[in-house]
Specification:
Elements: H1 2-11, H2 14-23, H3 38-43, H4 45-52, H5 56-64, E1 91-93, E2 106-108, H6 114-126, H7 133-140, H8 144-153
Antiparallel strand pairs: 1-2
């Protein structure tokens, strides 16, 4: 509501105010100091002479400078067109069992896929005596510290089904009639 009110006042009589501003005489700028002008400096014969004069000391220093430029060696590219990784990473096959089609086939050592992470968290939740942090670290080629952090901070969701309520448990109330 406030935006509409301010817009009305802002746009009130806009055309007349604009015409009034345009028709005003422009103020004349203040005169500039004559030493600030570059035109007078460039016209001075002493400065022109100084610019055109050659200094022998600078010329001898310039002759001593020697620059040698070479192109970088040309790199021969293979015609294969594939970019090979510079560092070969050790990869391991995933341990997914019947979920094999859902995820990637190979993962770098020290990392796990999303499906593997959910599987190991669920295994640890269901059987913590069998699936200890040490066994998980050995099984999936992970560091023990990372596995402990994973088991501490990530917990899989638990799905709980509640029994459906019977009709006897639900009491329907009729609204009171006004008389």
């Amino acid at each position: 509501m406030g935006g509409r009110v301010t817009r009305v006042f802002r746009n009130f009589n806009v055309e007349n105010r604009a015409r009034r501003e345009i028709s005003k005489e422009k103020p004349t700028p203040a005169p500039r100091h004559r030493t600030a002008r570059l035109d007078t400096v460039a016209d001075s014969p002493e400065i022109k002479e100084e610019v055109l004069r050659k200094d022998d000391r600078f010329l001898t220093l310039l002759k001593d400078v020697y620059v040698e430029s070479r192109d970088p060696p040309v790199q021969v590219k293979d015609g294969g067109g594939e970019h090979l990784p510079s560092k070969q990473e050790e990869k391991r096959l995933t341990k997914l069992g019947h979920l094999e089609g859902l995820d990637v086939k190979k993962v770098p050592k020290g990392k796990i896929s999303l499906v593997e992470a959910l599987t190991l968290l669920n295994n640890h939740k269901l059987q913590p005596q069998i699936w200890t942090a040490e066994k998980i670290a050995a099984e999936y080629s992970l560091e023990l510290k990372e596995v402990n952090s994973l088991l501490e901070f990530f917990i899989p969701f638990a799905v709980q089904e509640f029994p459906k309520e019977t009709k006897k448990a639900i009491t329907s109330r009729k609204p009171k009639q006004l008389t």
